[in-house]
Automatic annotation (TrEMBL):
This is Uncharacterized protein. Gene3D superfamilies: P-loop containing nucleotide triphosphate hydrolases. GO terms for cellular component: nucleus; Shu complex. Pfam families: PSY3. One of its GO terms (biological process) is recombinational repair. It comes from Maudiozyma exigua (Yeast).
Amino acid sequence: MEVLKHCKEYPLSQYYHTVPHSLNLQDVSEVTTTPKYSMHLIEPDFKMNEYKRQLLLRNYETGKSGAVLIIDIISIWKQTLKETRFENIKYWYVNSKEISTIEGLICFLGRVNANPIMALNKECLIRHGTNPANCSLDGIIIDNLSYLNTSDDFKSFNILKNMISNIQKAFGCWYISTSLDLEFSQGIEHSFYPKPIAPYTNFTAFPSNYLNDINIVMIRDSATHSKVIKK
């Protein structure tokens, strides 16, 4: 016991770190060999499509203990996830009034970051094949951020990206988000966004400060294909 009195304690976090999960983007020939941990997909509409289905299928590692958190702001994933090809995928599914605002989404992610077991267990509408106590968070999908238009997007989306970055550092998860293309912002919605900068100007009016912190930005040009506009 005398020996123990002279021992110094060190936090366990000094000796272990999360292993980051990179995205599987092997179908995109333009992508460099550098691992990508976050992706933003620009789309022409709010509809479900085969490309998004394949993104989930490719980036879920079957047989692993981890699961994907699907934040379905526009209510298009619930029916899709009932398809047979998704039956072996572990996921938490969130679709609530709270996440229909940028403030609510940030608050929800804050609770996930602070206490994932409690947040995922109590607040997810569907927990398919998951037990938060022994299931790691391998990936996050947020679809679709264009639904969250506010007059102060620049500041709010900066807070959102910082929150996502904190979660990625804590859990090592990949991250995919979506928004709508430039045609969406040609009407009244245009007044909600700060002016974007290159290389996004010709594709979207979505806040450039958010996109600048994303590893790769892509635009979907069909139901099954996309092209890179930032890598």
